Amino acid sequence: VILEGLVTTRNADRSINISPMGAVLGDSNLEEFDLRPFRSARTYENLHRTRQGILHVTDDVEMLARAAVDRLDEVPAMQDAEAVDGAILTDACRWYAFQVVTLDDTEERTHLHCRVIDQGLLRHFLGFNRAKHAVLEAAILATRVHLIPAEAIRAEMQRLSVPVEKTAGPQERRAFAFLQQYLQGVLTD
Ligand SMILES: Cc1cc2nc3c(=O)[nH]c(=O)nc-3n(C[C@H](O)[C@H](O)[C@H](O)COP(=O)(O)O)c2cc1C
Question: Which of 33, 49, 171, 177 is the most buried (most CB within 10 A)?
Fold first, then answer.
């Protein structure tokens, strides 16, 4: 199972970086997981240097969409973690402070095995919602504009707009509209 989470890491200037990342779960019930950041990602750079971070489970797809393309409009609410030198997103549902146990960066997509050393529950997860899943898929498209042909991205966005129209609340609507606008700006052909 790949759990799509938000990872916070400490930048060299002590500010906090927030990025969506997939956590590859084994059967350890989130005591351990793997992260696969590309070598080009700030998350990789920070984890390589600090060997620690915090994985968050959230249903806030607007934060996820904005963080995916580095366009958070404001710094989200955070508090310092105790077990690691990092920050907890206080509007997330759950958080997992982790240490990087092994790091393999021989390939462009790196392989970091992480062990959870502290965790917390902040609020309940909303549950399944088709619009949230559609925003998640759209956010992934927005981070892959250099890999997927523009026409395919437009067609996929059209398809994803259906569950958004049918099932979205204000947060999902804003997030999807944001990604549509972002894609309009970066897809030139
Ligand atoms: C749901 C989701 C999952 C993602 N998973 C990964 C991942 O596993 N590895 C990765 O390198 N990028 C992943 N991305 C893309 C990064 O979030 C994106 O490239 C981001 O800009 C990286 O930020 P950073 O450079 O601050 O680390 C994912 C994006 C989304 C929306």
Answer: 33
CA–CA gap between residue 104 and residue 16 (Å, rounded)? 23
Residue 94, H or E segment: strand 94-104
- Identify which of 143, 147, 148 to mutate to test ligand 1's pocket (most ligand atoms within 8 A of the CB): 143
pLDDT tens per residue across span 70-117? 999 899 999 999 999 999 999 999 999 999 999 999 999 999 999 999
Alpha helix (H) residue ranges in the chain:
42-50, 61-68, 130-142, 150-167, 170-186
Query: Do β-strands 52-57 and 32-35 pair in parallel, antiparallel, or remain unpaired?
Result: unpaired
Going from the Cα of 139 to the center of ligand 1, the distance in angstroms, rounded, reads 9
- The model's pTM is 0.97
Report the DSSP beta bridge partners of residue 23. Answer: 3, 35
